[in-house]
Write a structure and sequence with these properties.
Layout: H1 2-5, H2 11-17, H3 19-33, H4 45-49, E1 54-59, H5 61-78, E2 82-86, H6 87-90, E3 101-107, H7 113-124, E4 130-134, H8 140-143, E5 147-150, H9 163-182, H10 188-209, H11 212-222, E6 227-232, H12 237-251, E7 254-259, E8 277-281, H13 287-299, E9 304-309, E10 320-325, H14 333-352
Parallel strand pairs: 1-2, 1-3, 3-4, 4-5, 6-7, 6-8, 8-9, 9-10
Helix pairs in contact: 3-9, 3-10, 5-9, 5-12, 10-14, 11-14, 12-14
Bound molecules: 6-O-phosphono-alpha-D-glucopyranose.
């Protein structure tokens, strides 16, 4: 294993650092095509995606959080209603079938049983427009789908998903723009601008990775704690959920992700000096709202750890620690903000001495119910 690991201590750390490469490999087909061509999703795509009226995303775990980010993009960029369900919930509830609905499954392994069964259930209800976003060629879920986009993360060994997640987001972003283009919601100039943002993404992710020493120094503050809260808004709310999931999976610290606007509807009651609060604070339209959420936490004596875009004018103050992420990158910002929360979980687990690549009780691929 040491040969495969190179300079890294764990596969998770290696896979976190492989993200600039994984993202540019996954974006390569899109950049080579010079745009978000529906054909990226398969030769049948133009027909399958034509007159789609809504999108239903199905997935488990981290892949589900990728779906939650995609919902914002599909509604905003493509102008289509989008629902996201946990596969094990969808497969056991009554669904209102619509043959013009696109069913999108997201699975790193392509073998997760609940996601596969949710897809079969959707098909049994009469849905035949199916698209799989998957990292493993020829696995079960893409084989059962009409369209497929393969992420090119490469083999992911760490149980906690990292590079699969961010490459899934690239695939889902491409889907949102392709649907928007087909529906006349995205014109040539907008498409070119979005393509440019995609081209710059691996560089921004590399900047975020360069923050590792600063993030590792925060891990000492997290390691002795029992609980942590992660806050975000908009497309960064699922990143808060993902940050909390990573931390609980590998460090066994109880963590919750919350949309920052819900703070006063419950979690504020838990805030005291013993519970660190992580805030994802990109320089977007919601920044002022996030800043006022930070004041609410500070007023209760909570210690804040803020990931703030370089251009969002945040500085350290009493009880507020700030790490400056790269300048705001626009619509792809949740991909860049996924990196610091991965690194925070990794270094906290390292400080606690847990088995980072094989956390207790968890499996890489869940093929049982
Ligand atoms: C397991 C893994 C997670 C993964 C989830 C879904 O819980 O530990 O990292 O996100 O399964 O897996 P999939 O292969 O369907 O994306």
């Amino acid at each position: 294993a040491s040969l495969e690991l190179g300079p890294y201590r764990h596969f998770m750390q290696k896979e976190i650092h492989e993200q600039p490469r994984a993202l540019s490999d996954t974006a390569e087909g899109i950049l080579d095509a010079g745009g978000f061509d529906p054909a990226l999703f398969g030769k049948d795509a133009a027909a399958v995606l034509a007159d789609v009226e809504s999108v239903q995303i199905l997935a488990c775990g981290t892949s589900y959080y990728a779906g939650m980010v995609a919902r914002y993009w599909i509604e905003d960029i493509a102008g289509l209603p989008c629902a996201v369900d946990i596969a094990s919930e969808y497969r056991y509830r009554k669904v209102i079938a619509n043959p013009k609905q696109l069913i999108v499954t997201i699975s790193q392994s392509g073998e997760t049983l609940d996601t596969m069964e949710a897809l079969k259930y959707a098909k049994a209800q009469g849905h035949d427009r199916t698209l799989s976003i998957c990292n493993v060629p020829e696995s079960a879920i893409p084989r059962a789908s009409r369209l497929v986009f393969y992420t090119r993360a490469g083999a992911e060994i760490g149980v906690a998903s990292t590079k699969a997640f961010t490459t899934q987001l690239v695939a889902l972003f491409a889907l949102a723009v392709a649907l928007g283009r087909q529906r006349g919601q995205v014109d040539g100039a907008r498409e070119a601008a979005l393509l440019d943002e995609l081209r710059h993404l691996p560089g921004s992710v590399q900047h975020a990775l360069n923050l590792e020493p600063q993030i590792a120094s925060w891990a000492a503050a997290f390691a002795p704690r029992q609980h942590a809260l992660f806050l975000g808004r908009g497309t960064h709310y699922p990143i808060a959920l993902e940050g909390a999931l990573k931390l609980k999976e590998i460090s066994y610290i109880h963590a919750e992700g919350y949309p920052a606007g819900e703070l006063k509807h419950g979690p504020l009651a838990l805030v005291d000096t013993q519970m660190p609060v992580v805030v994802i604070a990109p320089n977007d339209a919601l920044l002022e709202k996030v800043k006022s959420n930070i004041q609410e936490v500070r007023a209760r004596g909570g210690e804040m750890f803020v990931f703030a875009d370089a251009d969002s004018r945040f500085s350290d103050s009493e009880g507020v620690h700030v790490i400056r992420t790269p300048r705001h990158v626009g619509v792809l910002s949740p991909i860049v903000h996924a990196i610091p929360v991965q690194l925070l979980a990794y270094h906290t687990a390292l400080a606690r001495g847990t088995d980072v690549d094989k956390p207790r009780n968890l499996a890489k691929s869940v093929t049982v119910e």
